[in-house]
């Protein structure tokens, strides 16, 4: 579902903010840059491009949701073809209140619904087409899912958005209106519908348009006048129609939206732009003010694509070619399930994945648009509801306490320092020049794991480089640095730091910045033992030194400057990389982050070693594995981002070695102590195979458990619940069934299965020393080999790694 620029426009409203005293440029959402402008003048103008009132209100929402629901939900596809039988849409338990309450509880401020996807099926009883919910037998043709959605959203205090696909495969069928080459003719929108009526509204619109554009504007009019306040209109740029030609009358579309819902923003290149991927990942330097070509006149009310399009860098380097600058903030769309539409068996992302998503979107000056797909009964699946609840709890807990708020802020560089720590967005600290330092005394030693910085973008986005320092008792030490800030920038530290003072340094800015907030959060990260430790590798090419794998940056793109690289071409045999932890440390797991931009297949046949003594690096992997005192695991599947490998022993030295003559590249290598077990959801990973304990049988009782290659499915997630006797009941998240020894057998070799929870002794497990022991038999959970599908049994503890397990927490 590629989100290309297509859309509509942004209000050309000037936000009433005071420009810096030296500025000759009047702040505005669009500013022309004639060819006579110098680069310095263009940078000054870029500093004074500001959002419209609607854009600023949208940016403050931060966290928005998407709901894809329609014929595709019932047909099990992502894109329909326009031939859908209306009767297929038959949600037997539609509960839009559940949608809205779940999203509200998870911290979302807005939700956008697919009123019409590319199949052309309208999810409300339109006057203008027979391909709609009115033609369905559901509720005898009287149902209106858009009405239910909008009413529930408003009931729970959520802003409402509508997705209305310009592409329409139903209208592209023979006899339809899409691409039928009809002549444009004069008409007044709204027109009379098939039922002889027309919607009422505060205005009508005289247009000259072809058949499809009139149809589209009529349906747009219905959505904007029949369902209360609308705050976003989503025009998808995807075109599944190939050679079919249909032009869109954007000018009229925009005019209708601006008139009927003046507070609404529009996605697709006018008010809002696509970030460039569907993974919720914004750029490390994400700007709101961007350069464009063409006429500045009317640019706020037409779809535009910035110079560079979806390039990694849309900053100062592109300003020289601009004809005008425009405020065009990014929206980061992503999915909590694998698809946009629900499909049976597709579970949600883990809580850790949602945490990462929060940081790569909201934490990088981008509004998150997270899709949550209801199932074919009309409800959000239970596992999605649970995960969203965990997500909301994490956000409130993690960001609910800001140590800087209770500290004392000072600055010797002018401005009111306390404005950056008062919790009010509309106040700001501004130094007297484009650089400056803000210090916050926390009052006592405080553990900090993450910093947050915000600009008051009503005055423009200006910071281009900054750093954050912590006080170690005798001197300032730089903790982190970044480029742009924008509405919000979050910088999570690789390891938490305990400090009594923190300091923000603005190193460069396009103009005097307005820092709305500087925050210090405790964080929830576990100490990465490998971070910043001495690392070496067999050879180095392209500047990819060994230290890049322990710099705290997991970005898998070479352009991010944080990937190691051995000799190229690959002339050496068995290249290696290693890190010295400084002393022997108990290890639970290590995480290996592979490249993601290219060449990820290189890291496929590799070994991981652990030892308390230095490695002999001239050895082959098999020789290394046979060395006394060396722990090893051989991975024959491609490394992920990350692949988690359980270790379950103490070690000082850790090594990754590639088998054969191949380039070895790592984005990051992390090492963690064993996880302290508390009630929650975990993956259970075999030390011997690095594969996860897996439920292969859905909700079928009696299914024997197996191991399988790691993935994010809920059938590999296990809820550990403590019992009064110190044991745990282990429940599969996907099935809700308990881990059980078949028939209560006390014999070695008895199958470990899933079964209805009874709290029997054969369903209680003692977790200690890396083993998971059945209470009734004192035998331990054992996997039958190293491959996918190896079965789980109970057996006497012989010390083999196929009886050792690492637990990684993935949910509450």
From TrEMBL:
Residues 514-674 form the F5/8 type C domain. InterPro entries: FA58C (IPR000421), FTP1 (IPR006585), Galactose-bd-like_sf (IPR008979), GH (IPR017853), Glyco_hydro_29 (IPR000933), Glyco_hydro_29_N (IPR057739), Ricin_B-like_lectins (IPR035992), Ricin_B_lectin (IPR000772). It comes from the Bacteria. PROSITE patterns: FA58C_3, RICIN_B_LECTIN. Its EC number is 3.2.1.51. GO terms for cellular component: lysosome. Keywords: Calcium, Disulfide bond, Glycosidase, Hydrolase, Metal-binding, Signal. Residues 1-23 form the signal peptide. GO terms for biological process: fucose metabolic process; glycoside catabolic process. Belongs to the glycosyl hydrolase 29 family. This is alpha-L-fucosidase.
